[in-house]
Amino acid sequence: MSKLSRSHDIAHWDAEDADAWAAGNDKIAKRNLIWSIVAEHVGFSIWSIWSVMVLFMPQDVYGIDAAGKFYLVAVPTLVGAFMRIPYTIAPARFGGRNWTIVSALLLLIPTVLALWAMMNPGTSYTTFMVVAAFAGFGGGNFASSMTNINAFYPQRLKGWALGLNAGGGNIGVPVVQLIGLLVIATVGNTAPEIVCAVYLVFIALAAVGAAFYMDNLRNQKSNLGALAEALRHRHSWVMSFLYIGTFGSFIGFSFAFGQVLQINFLAGGDTPAQAALHAAQISFLGPLLGSISRPFGGKLADRIGGGRITLYTFVAMIFAAGILVATGMLDDAAPGAPSGAHMTGFVVGFIVLFVLSGIGNGSTYKMIPSIFEAKAQDEHAWTAEEKAAWSRRMSGALIGFAGAVGALGGVFINVALRLSYTGAAKSATNAFWVFLAFYVVCAVVTWFVFLRMQSVRTVAGEHVGRAPAPVG
Predict the structure, then answer these.
(1) Which tops the pLDDT comparison, 380 or 440?
(2) Which of 363, 356, 354 lies closest to 310 in space, CA to CA?
(3) Between the CA of residue 3 and those of 208, 212, 213, what are the distances in Å?
(4) Cβ-count burial of 300 within 10 angstroms (0-12 exposed, 13-18 middle, 19+ buried)?
(5) Which residues contact residue 51 at a Cβ distance below 8 angstroms, ignoring those fewer than 6 apart?
(6) Confidence tier at 222 by pLDDT (50, 70, 90)
(7) What span, in angstroms and rounded, lies between the C-alpha atoms of 163 and 359?
(8) Coil, strand, or helix at residue 231?
(9) Is Amino-acid biosynthesis included in the keywords of this UniProt record (predicted)?
(10) What are the tens digits of pLDDT across the range 319-333?
(11) How far apart are CA 310 and CA 245, in angstroms?
């Protein structure tokens, strides 16, 4: 029987059944994970494609200044954040395989539109904003992919599996930037349509692979009712807030890093083509390292505890943001363009933040299923199967919501940078101060909710079951 004609529907799936897992379910889950990563990877690339397109848009040709470009890359982030809510529900409603095929094919729309807009420089700024908004389809893919893979894997392996799925998807950001770099290095910043054409092929590959190799789990439930129930728990709102600091940082800096570098290179006397090339040569490194570090954040959370890893990550992000603040202040005080030392400080600060945001992404997503699995164990009247089903349903619903809220952090980063550059100082230093202050708040919230409160309740001798001990 061919891979396409075989049944792709699985009527009953219990990831916690150790015997079934050893007998072959692990291979089924792995196959679905691989193609989920491929489809999500392409989705992230299309979501962030405008972070590359702006490097092909000299102001004298397209008539869009640096401030306008920050809004141009913020719009897909905003749309993608809202798309994550319906995309969270879709796998259980239509089947993980079926929805992966559809969501991959939907990426053709923003890709073709971007190709058309970039080949018509006289297009109005409003039209560019509308076209860029369609790239938000790629942001939704993350939510459906994570919700689907969450259902395939047992609790003991979720940290690694979700981290690998998300990390593999996140790599789509540096990959599209690398392709942009290759195009700029080969033919200059005059042929953005080549980047779009390459992704038309990748989109087809993702859709065909999902059709042949993925499966639908027909015993999964995820709907707005499950989301409403999940949001009645205080930890759901806390996790959504913390995800602004981890994933929001990753996606926001991914979209803005190249633009910040390009502004500095232009200030240093580069031509637009030279600035685009120099920015592209560096900007992909941050998202790449952040993507690679994400699975290890999940792995560390599996071993040490999501709450602890998340707290340590935010503390380290405070110091990394401090590097940007210090460098920005020194640069503002010095006359002329940024020096080599200043550029090094900016690059180091951003790279460290990328790596830490990746680790934090993995640890926070490990915390979500752990929280609900722990809460389910306190329901002594439920059977083991009922506990597992409730935990999967709640964590699947929250994964999409937290992802949507977290993505808004990317919008805030680009807006903050835009306002900082258009302010009196004409630099990013004020935005860097905002980032530092926010990481302080995130660290305090993590410590208070997931570490201090657990410690206080334990010392007091109060029985707390398993919540939230597994995430601390």
Answers:
(1) 440
(2) 363
(3) 11, 5, 7
(4) buried
(5) 73, 173, 176, 177, 254, 255, 256, 257, 258, 259, 283
(6) low
(7) 9
(8) coil
(9) no
(10) 999 999 999 999 888
(11) 10
The percentage of residues in the chain with a pLDDT greater than 90, rounded to a whole number, is 36
Q: For residue 355, what pLDDT is reported?
A: 95
**H and E: helices and strands count for the chain:** 21, 2
Name residue 286's amino acid. Answer: G
pLDDT band at 151 (very low <50, low <70, confident <90, very high): confident
What angle, rounded to 10 degrees, do the helices at 66-94 and 384-422 form?
170
- Beta bridge partners, 9, equal 216
Per-residue CA distances from 294 to 62, 147, 152, 325, 370 (Å): 36, 17, 19, 25, 17
Q: Could you tell me the two tokens for 77?
A: 């982030």
Alpha helices in 63-171 (DSSP H): 66-94, 96-106, 108-118, 125-134, 137-152, 158-170
CB contact at 8 A, 275 and 262: yes
Radius of gyration of the chain (CA): 22
Question: Comparing C-alpha atoms, which of 128, 129, 87, 119 is closest to residue 104?
Answer: 87
Q: Which amino acid is at 414?
A: N
Residues 6 or more apart whose CB falls under 8 angstroms from that of 390 comprise 372, 376, 379, 382
**What is the separation of C-alpha 446 from the centre of its chain, rounded to a whole number of angstroms?**
20
3-state helix, strand, coil in the chain (%, to 5): 80, 0, 20
Neighbours of 331 (CB within 10 A): 22
- Tell me the residue length of the chain: 472
H helical segments located in 135-192: 137-152, 158-170, 172-187
d(CA 310, CA 445): 11
Nearest alpha carbon to residue 359 among 435, 256, 246, 248: 246
CA distance 61 to 58: 6
Q: Identify the CA nearest to 44 among candidates 139, 184, 154.
A: 139
pLDDT at residue 43 tops 80:
yes
Taking the C-alpha atoms of residue 187 and residue 41, their distance in angstroms, rounded to an integer, is 26
- In 3D space, the residue among 278, 314, 317 whose CA is nearest the CA of residue 447 turns out to be 314
Domains annotated for the chain, with CATH where assigned, are 25-471 (1.20.1250.20)
Nearest Cα to Cα of residue 372 among 155, 164, 165: 155
CA distance 281 to 57: 17
Q: Which residues contact 265 (CB under 8 A, 6 or more apart)?
A: 274, 275, 278, 279
Query: What gap in Å lies between CA 229 and CA 222, rounded to an integer?
Result: 11
Report residue 435's pLDDT band, with 50, 70 and 90 as the boundaries: very high
Amino acid at 143: A
